Amino acid sequence: MRYFVLVALFSLGFVQSFGAGKITGRVQDGKNGEAVIGAVINVQGSSAGTVTDMDGNFELQVENGVFTIEVKYLGYQSKEVGDVVVADNTVTLNIIIDEAKATQLNDVVIHSSLKKENINAIYVMQKNAAVISDGISADVIKKSPDRNTGEILKRVSGTTIQDNKFVVVRGLGDRYNTAMVDNSVLPSTEPNRKAFSFDIIPSAMIDNIVISKAATPDLPGDFSGGAINILTKETPEENFNAISVGTNYNTVSTGNQFKSGYRGSMDFIGFDDGSRQLPTDFPTSKKVQAGLNQATSTSALNMLNNNYDIKTHNALPGMNGQATMGRVYKSGKGSKFGFTAAATYSHNETIKKDVLRQYDGFDYVDNVYGYSSNLGGLLNAAYYTGGSKIVFKSLYNRIFDDNFLYRQGTNNSSSSDVRYYAFDLIQKSLLKTSLEGEHRLGKNQSKLGWLTSYNVVTNNQPDQRKVSYSKFGTNDFLADNTSLGKSNNRLFGDLNENIINGSVYYTVPFTLFDNKNSIKAGVFEQYRYRDFHNRYLGATLNLTTAGSESDRQRPISTLYGKDLIDKGAYRLDEITGPGDEYTATTTTSAGYVMLDNRFSDKTRLVWGARYESYSMNLDAGDGTQVQPTWNDLLPSANFSYSLNSKSNLRASYFRSVARPELREVAPLSYYDYELNATIQGNTALSRSRVDNIDLRYEIFPGAGEILSASVFYKHFDNTIENNVNGQNSGYEISPSNYKAAQNIGVELELRKNLGFISKNSFLKNMNFYANFAYINSSVQLDTTAYANGHAYETRPLSGQSPYVINSSLGYAAMEGKLNFNVLYNRIGERIFLIGQGRFGNVMENARNLLDFQTNYVISKHSEVKLTVKDILNNKVTMYFDQDANGKFDQQHITAGTIDPNKDWIYSQYRPGTTLMLTYLWKF
User: Which of 169, 392, 611, 849 could form a disulfide with 225 if both were Cys (CB 3.0 to 4.6 A apart)?
Assistant: First the structure.
């Protein structure tokens, strides 16, 4: 045995001695951060060498050892980078070279090291961004507990998230932000608002995220908060395979009683098997509303899925898995082809337990059970040859959310006790494909770029079922099934949207004041087509049928039993209106010119203008047509001044627009059973125009470190916000234009290694990060507004938090193999809905979010990660601010009476703490 061990160790040593590795990296211009194309890379003392490609990238195959890398390029100082250690691995080396000065000798060589050069590359990337922006890299994402893009975004300075998926940047809601994946503009994923559901993209598929908070002419013109560009993984540096599996446990959900309705054979993998869908030969709305005879009605009802059984089991732990692979193929002529492919899956069973709702005469407790499966795939491929590259990117993701709600409580306005059931499956999917190219032309390295993309978004609600029971006094509970209404029906809904994008640009460099400048011109075209329709139908009980009174007392599992349908106790009715469907197209045409002027080594101005023409053609089922056309000239200017090698002063101005979403201008109503509200469109909506001014000072003390302070101001014309109002019981949510608004704020950001406190202590392995934003906004109203009797002439913007705090503390031990991270997030109270009439503003209460993560690299092939999310488990509270004091004052209900002058509870619950364990294997 001992002999065998010695032989094995010797063999391992032999392999190590003659092993091989790889050196990859990028060469950049130290002044402007641009790629240096055609730089010569050599390994000192070896015949190994290569040249950089059109992105400045290079790759060297070498034997194990310690090397010095030489970089040479005509007109630039040569550089030697030492201490490059290769030991059966891939070493990343990003090199910065500077132009040679006229007074320097040609043989001057700059000496550096691997660590120093990578630090320099970080400086150049951060300092040379054209606009005021913030972002987050794959490395930081890896060290966070976040599983999808929605969770990641709340870590970015000045950014918060609503409902764990909708982004708010600098206090501005989703309508003022633009979502992009790989530079392609994405559509709204929601049928009732302009919003992109960022939880649809798993974090493992992301290379980095950049949020541009100021505009350049080549960015879309319809954002004021931020343009969020999610860049997915492209071409790997080396071949790889990886598999990760994980599980999670939630203190409120896992192992506790979980209820659900009908379960299809493919629900677990995220697809409805068709058993919930409306049959293709089902009678049309026109036929049903014209009146069916009893035989036809009975036959049609039997075609539906009438399984109302409520299943019960203990909620399973969450589970997730991912498989990824990457390949790179090279030819002897310098061409390269590579691709990255990934497949992801997750399943979770969650419970919103004892959700309290006490407002406007309602005193309810909801329990909401969510059965969710997520399936996704990614395929990115790129081909590089000479001065050109062509990249294909495709992303598919679908979310299967099957929710069951059980509500019980009292409706004081009708003096009745209530039992309410809602079965609601929503299937969302996103297919995004894009093909883009970039080509270097001529000796002056002009650049021609183009992009075309095709996106498909679906939102399918097959057979949303809502059933209510009421009890008056000492009587028994009776089903409210004698007629159809907004709270008792079966909804079959579909939204399908197709988007085609195309853009072309051309960049020409030129020299001005002995500095490199450029001019860029381009055009953009987008075409959207949406088809949306809802159908409301259901069975109504015939009260003249014998035993109808006792039939109404049946439990929900047998309320719509086949025996009752077959004996003719039910008829098929439908309340679909002509306004419950629409088709719409939009066309956006844009052209722009942008100049990047460098007047000296320290001064840069990126400026120009974008012209956008937007046309909408919406045809509602009731004959209403909405056909606005808006033309806008959108100038912008971004100025930066390098005070020294480690600091910048930036200033920017840009004009932008915010357009209403299709659903917002459609004249149809949608009932949200969970909110007990009707969502109503407004055909008179107009687009908003916004003028934006920013000022930022930023310092880069060390590698990956930053200290910045920003001030921003925004002025809005015709800002769009959602209002809540109503008469009697229930309420309506609808959008409106307001004359003007303004938004002013301050942002502070700090990322710092703590080694400066004590250089030789454990603090050198500890990093601290924090960002803070304070925002003040006001909306100017045309007339004095009243909410529950309180008058006001100005108020904050809805969705805007007065402050945002993000911070984290990370520690790396064992040479980076063991990492710990603690993360904290808090947002200030913000308006969710604007109150009118007897309603105060609906506010979202401030909440502390504390997360922890540790990961351990077992070997170069495997890693384990433990995450604890929402350790504090603060209550999620939304309330009607009935006393208009801007803070939550919970009332005590006495004798069933809810005081209209004290705060009402819109929604309140604890989500629980979640523990996640993930194992990653690379091979």
Answer: 169
Closest to 376 measured CA to CA, from 183, 198, 197, 205 = 205
Instruction: Give the type of residue at 78.
Output: S
Q: Which CATH superfamily is domain 2-127 in?
A: Carboxypeptidase-like, regulatory domain (2.60.40.1120)
Separation of alpha carbons 862 and 238, rounded Å:
17
Please choose, from the candidates 209, 232, 70, the residue with its C-alpha nearest in 3D space to the C-alpha of residue 135: 209
Amino acid identity for residue 856 in this structure: Y
Instruction: For the chain, give percent helix, strand, coil, nearest 5.
Output: 10, 60, 30
Q: Please, which residues have CB within 8 angstroms of residue 747's CB and are 6 or more apart in sequence?
A: 157, 158, 170, 708, 709, 710, 711, 712, 771, 772, 773
Sign of the CA dihedral with 26 first, then 30, 32, and 37 last: negative
CB 585 within 8 A of CB 531: no
Sign, CA torsion 401/920/93/769: positive
Average pLDDT of the chain is: 84
Cβ atoms of 416 and 397 within 8 Å: the answer is no
- The domain segmentation of the chain, as residue ranges, is 2-127
Half-sphere exposure (CA, 13 Å, Cβ side) for 620? Answer: 21
Closest CA to 426 of 185, 670, 676: 670
Tokens read off for 700:
């880069």
On whether the CB atoms of residues 470 and 497 are closer than 8 A, the answer is no
Phi-psi region of 420 (alpha: psi -120 to 50; beta: other; left: phi over 0): beta
Tell me the β-bridge partners of 630.
614
φ, ψ (nearest 5 deg) of residue 648: -130, 150
| pTM of the shown model | 0.83
Higher pLDDT, 731 or 526: 526
pLDDT in tens, 758-809: 888 888 888 898 888 899 989 888 777 777 777 887 888 887 888 888 888 9
Helix/strand/coil (H, E, C) string of 349-369?
A: EEEEEEEEEEECCEEEEEEEE
φ/ψ of 351, rounded to 5, equals -130, 125
Task: Give me the percent of the chain exceeding a pLDDT of 70.
Answer: 85
pLDDT digits (tens, 9 = 90+) for 344-379: 899 999 999 999 999 888 899 999 999 999 898 888
By the 8 A CB rule, do 715 and 690 touch? yes
